[in-house]
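Students often ask why we bother encoding 3D structure as a string. The short answer is that it lets us treat folding as translation between two languages. Here is a chain of 176 residues written in the first language.
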Amino acid sequence: MGEGGFPRTSGEPPSPGSGCPGDDHGVTSLLWRARRLAHLERLAEILPQVMLGVVRSCGHLWLATRPDTVVSWRSAGADMELWGERDLADRRGHCGLAGGLPAHRTMASWFWDDRFGERRTEVVPTGTGLCERRVHDLLDATLLTDSELASGSKAWRTFPDPLLGEPGASGDRGGG
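And here it is in the second language, the structure alphabet:
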């Protein structure tokens, strides 16, 4: 075990009894939500640590390099897929609320924010030995800083994108 009872990040799976509060030695699902864009280069760097002990995960990302697109996240075992799925609704209701499937409009309205529209990130990893605080801290570290956020979408689109590459390339599908 590493410092503070957290599993080492050397690639070894966490052992039961990881020292995390609420660890019942069984399978756990965690929910991570954010209303700020994620920096894909930082996400790529921490993914091996986040995925330790994860057997399955799903969700969607709001990424700085693709601020107008829902990027779906799906993993099972050692396989992971990230891909651009559909345009997000903006604060004027374009795309997700004004058009699209009724289910998309309904979901967008549940999570609507006056500044960001339906834009948000939600990821649910499921596995053994997961520590919610550790996973949240790792994923929170991928979010744009205040200064990066203030630089605007033109600057965000120029950030390195090691997982998905250029928007529109290969059907906008990527994997890790």
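Translate back mentally: The domain at 25-157 is CATH 3.30.1220.10 (Hypothetical Protein Yjia; Chain: A;domain 2). Keep this in mind for the problem set.
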